Amino acid sequence: MYEAVAAYPAGDSTVSRQARTAADYGYDGLVVRTREADFDADAISDRYGIEVVRGIEVDAADPGSAAGAVGNYRPECSVLLVRGGTNARNRYAVETDRIDVLTRPMAGDGDFNHVLARAAKTHRVHVEFDFGPVLRASGGPRVQALQGLRKLRELIEQYDAPFVVSVTADSHRQLRAPRELRAVGEQIGFTADQITAGLEAWGEIVARNRNREDERFIEPGVRRGRYEP
């Protein structure tokens, strides 16, 4: 199981501190969302016994700006995320094959519907269940976050769209162990298996993208064989 976190300078904790806590909580891997983070993934992985993976989360004002960033950053990372939160950004993300994860789709003015769920399945874009606001907010914002998660879960289930689970931590203090996330999820309508699957999906994305980077890869389902030049 993996988590995906922000790290210094975008977050309050360094990659090393996040990795140490994630390893203590039983995670197998950690995706670092912060483009500006400066870290030695191999050294940190060896130190804490947890795979550390470079990701980039694109936070653009509109789909046009996001498209330019996606083109620039895709070769630089193992996991490419686009932050949602508006209907336009949500739609752009789930309709773009080069994107791995649509994050925070229900944040701000964002919404999600059956059209977007179908597009996410077609383009194999994972939709993030963001448990951060449920764990860290209170009052009205927490109620809204719960409602958003329930709606999103129903759509993802109905259309069998791919998904990931995260608490969107920008500090090691915000990380939660998988068992804690399962307990929270079960209180709001998720199953323990869904939470586990959402945490494992990060690692599956990493493995898929490494496979695509293999020189023998031609297209999904097609690899260069012994007689190919």
Automatic annotation (TrEMBL):
Biological process terms in GO annotation: tRNA 5'-leader removal
One Pfam family recorded for the sequence: RNase_P_p30
Family: Belongs to the eukaryotic/archaeal RNase P protein component 3 family.
Assembly and binders: Consists of a catalytic RNA component and at least 4-5 protein subunits.
Localization annotation: Cytoplasm
Keyword Hydrolase applies: yes
Origin: domain of life: Archaea
Broad enzyme group: hydrolase
The name this protein goes by in its record: Ribonuclease P protein component 3
Reactions the enzyme catalyzes: Endonucleolytic cleavage of RNA, removing 5'-extranucleotides from tRNA precursor
Molecular function GO labels: ribonuclease P activity
InterPro entries, alphabetized: Pol/histidinol_Pase-like (IPR016195), RNase_P_comp-3_arc (IPR023539), RNase_P_p30 (IPR002738)
One CC-aspect GO term: ribonuclease P complex
EC number: 3.1.26.5
Organism annotation: Halonotius pteroides
Entry function: Part of ribonuclease P, a protein complex that generates mature tRNA molecules by cleaving their 5'-ends.
Entry keywords, A to Z: Cytoplasm, Endonuclease, Hydrolase, Nuclease, tRNA processing
